[in-house]
Amino acid sequence: MLDNSILNVALPTIGRELQASATALQWVTGVYSVVFGGLMLALSAVADRFGRRNVMLLGLVLLGLTSLATAFVTTAGQLIAVRAAMGVAAAMTTPGSLALAFRLFADDRLRVRAMPVISTVGLVGLAVGPIAGGFVLAVAPWQSLLLVNVPIAAVAFAAIRIGIPADRLDELHRDPVDIWGAVLGTAAIASALIAPALFVEAGAGTWFPWASVAVTIAFAAAFAWREHSFRCPLLDLRLIASPLVSSGLAFKASANLAVAGLGYLVALQLQLDWGWTPAQAALGMLPQVIVLVAGGALIGVLVGKLGLNRAAWLSASAVVVGLAVYALLGRFGYVWIAFSLALVAAGMRVVGVVAGTNVM
């Protein structure tokens, strides 16, 4: 989360130095999400069969190497290629992270204590990224924002090698990898993530974006048929058929998209439209950070008073209202931007807990 959000504040600087178009800047962050989301399901299956620890270690090596390559980037196309490789690394490291945490904390009581910490770390990365990026840009080139991944990957690699036991043969899945399911699932997720960008670039009045929607539906239908008929599916569709699981996943995905999209737009507006410096834009993101980090203390009280269902709908409504406030009033003053950032972050904070509870 930190890796992608930290670039939001740096996009105008990257655009000037690399002479990148608005479309290219969109793909600097977008290609990471497309590759990450598209490959996560397939690489999860690979990790189940070849070892979650092994795949995560390889992913950390790839993350370090691709981050180091940022120092040699001279064009927007090269940066997009590097970001795509980082997406592959993220897809290799993310699926096994929770499983390795469970292996590290064998006692159930320790796991219960560890889960909120893991969740908070992710949210802090999402929130702190733009602020850290803004202040780093005041004293260092934009490449340093990604070069910071090199020591982080090295420390994580060493910690996993030393602190987490190696994969045992009895833990590995012996079923064959569903290659066609992996291809169809990756294509469905990637095309679903690409479609909104095509609507922005080409407009809803052209045929190309709608064709991408049709392709997404076709791939999704083919993936569902494959998983239903294959004896060793990548994904048990019966889990998603559960109303609690499907609603939890939908809430979580929508809230994540809202927070990430709002942060991207606000960072560009403050700098390109209003002329703020990267450091000033970083301070402008503080309402989101404060709510995401400090809001956890109020979640238990809210859920206890309202119950899971009411808390879920209230938090989802907060996200929608926050986005509407920004869309309608964000151009009239920073106070409206701050209000929308705080409201969306508050909704996201509650949604994360409620959705996670429903899914588990």
TrEMBL record:
It is found in: Cell membrane. Keywords: Cell membrane, Membrane, Transmembrane, Transmembrane helix, Transport. Gene3D superfamilies: Multidrug resistance protein D. GO terms for cellular component: plasma membrane. The keyword Protein transport does not apply. InterPro entries: MFS, MFS_dom, MFS_trans_sf, Sugar_transporter_CS. GO terms for molecular function: transmembrane transporter activity. It comes from Kocuria coralli. The keyword Cytoplasm does not apply. Residues 1-360 form the Major facilitator superfamily (MFS) profile domain. SUPFAM superfamilies: MFS general substrate transporter (SSF103473). It comes from the Bacteria. It holds the Pfam family MFS_1. The chain crosses the membrane at residues 24-43, 55-74, 80-105, 117-140, 146-164, 176-195, 207-225, 237-265, 285-304, 311-329, 335-355. This is MFS transporter. It is a multi-pass membrane protein.
